[in-house]
Description:
Among the domains are: about 35-70, no CATH class; about 85-185. Strand 1, helix 3 and strand 2 (about 60-65) form a beta-alpha-beta unit. The relative contact order is 0.10. The protein has about 200 residues and is an alpha+beta fold. The chain contains 8 helices and 5 strands. The structure holds zinc ion.
Amino acid sequence: MHVTRALSENGYPLSLVRKQISRRGRPAKPKRVFGATVVLDYLPKLSEKLGRLLASFGIRATFRSRHKLGSLLSALKPQRSPAERTNCVYRVHCSRFSQPTAYVGKTVRSWGTRRRVHATSIESGNREASALAQHAIDYKCAFDLSNVSFLESDDNETKLLKKESIAILKSPNLVNRNSGVGICKAWTSCLSLISYRKRLS
Ligand SMILES: [Zn+2]
């Protein structure tokens, strides 16, 4: 070997050179294998000690903080007014019939904007705009757009659509034409069963 020869020629004892080279080839120390993992709330000072103690028993401890930065910040956020609400599933009621009739919809833009669009489509007689407009125009009734309930919210639009679909399936007496999109059939039958049982009880 070139390295061995070069080193011994430079005065290093051959035995030492061989020893050093064989040491390099040795596998690294095996990583510690834990038999189990536990997730615990983080408590300053105590958690480090507990982690070491558990590790001596072959248990890996991971610690989570009870107060996530996001939850702390959202607690500080000022409450938004209904008109400012975005990315939500909402319900509004029509007051014409003795049996309450409602419309469930979703909006990514603010409720204030969606509300104006609803009002404009009714005023202009645009039946195609939504099931709400169609119902209001056909039956000459009024939806109480100032009395809105927010059922769900989600920043992910696909998830919001699914939440809307579920809300539509769960709510009785809706004017909605379709039951939204993206819900698998197993869910649909499951939810129909739930709402059927609710009606019976
Ligand atoms: Zn109505």
